[in-house]
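for the recovery benchmark. tokens below, seq after
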């Protein structure tokens, strides 16, 4: 997403929602501090998500320390971490793909990961990672 902050008020940054024709009032809020730092919600269309590395946000400063210390606040980054962990276990990755009778490419495209003792599968909702299931 490409966002431009219109104003900041009460610990939230406000911008126009790019997911619908939000032209009169900035309806998308982004939490800047605390355990929900980086999460956003459009109060007009109801969509929710969190800021990801692919997002461009002009004029945004999020309390990254709070976001990092908060439990489960950035599912997208956690998914990437587990995916990178799986790449450290190439034999386990091959065995898992063989057991499921799928290609390694499918594992990569679906962002299956590994914690070192369990498999991880990201759960998606409205285009963002809303949680991670461990098997």
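predicted aa per position
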């Amino acid at each position: 997403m490409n966002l431009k902050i219109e104003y900041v008020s009460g610990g939230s940054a406000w911008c126009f929602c790019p997911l619908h024709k939000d032209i009169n009032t900035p309806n998308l809020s982004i939490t800047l501090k605390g355990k929900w730092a980086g999460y956003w919600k459009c109060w007009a269309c109801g969509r929710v998500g969190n800021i990801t590395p692919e997002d461009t946000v002009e004029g945004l400063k999020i309390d990254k320390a709070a976001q990092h210390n908060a439990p489960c606040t950035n599912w997208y980054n956690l998914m990437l971490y587990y995916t990178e962990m799986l790449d450290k276990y190439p034999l386990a990755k091959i065995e898992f793909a063989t057991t499921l009778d799928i290609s390694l490419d499918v594992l990569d495209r679906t962002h299956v990961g590994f914690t070192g003792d369990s498999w991880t599968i990201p759960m998606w909702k409205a285009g963002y990672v809303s949680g991670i299931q461990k098997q």
